[in-house]
Amino acid sequence: MHSARSFAAGTLSGWRMTDLLDGMELVVSELATNALRHGMSLTGDRPREVIRLSLIRRGAHVACAITDPGSSAPVLRDPSPFEPGGLGLHIVESLSACWGWCPLVPQGKAVWAVLAA
């Protein structure tokens, strides 16, 4: 997670968009955690599984996309007071102008969020 947050912070600093820094670091952390938790194979049957982070700037908007080899759709679930977790996508939704996901060919998915300066 540290390297993903550092990459986001360095990129936003280079773009002189540090006003997005706190929100983007949180979004990157949540999406990367979900990719590790839900997008990776536990059996190790897929060789060289990779998670990638991309940041794309268009004017005052920055899109963050995390790709992983998993095929399951991200689920915005009701957080339970008795179970840890479940707030990640709620956090992403609250900090972003919009978010979503799309399947990748031949396998995997990209989960993305757009933040506005």
UniProtKB/TrEMBL annotation:
Species of origin reads Microbispora amethystogenes
- What InterPro entries does the entry give? Anti-sigma-factor_SerPK, HATPase_C_sf, HATPase_dom
- Which keywords describe this protein according to UniProt? ATP-binding, Kinase, Nucleotide-binding, Serine/threonine-protein kinase, Transferase
In the record, what terms sit under GO molecular function?
ATP binding
Transmembrane parts of this sequence:
none
Q: Where is the Histidine kinase/HSP90-like ATPase domain?
A: 4-96
Could you tell me the superkingdom of the organism this chain comes from?
Bacteria
Q: What is this protein called?
A: ATP-binding protein
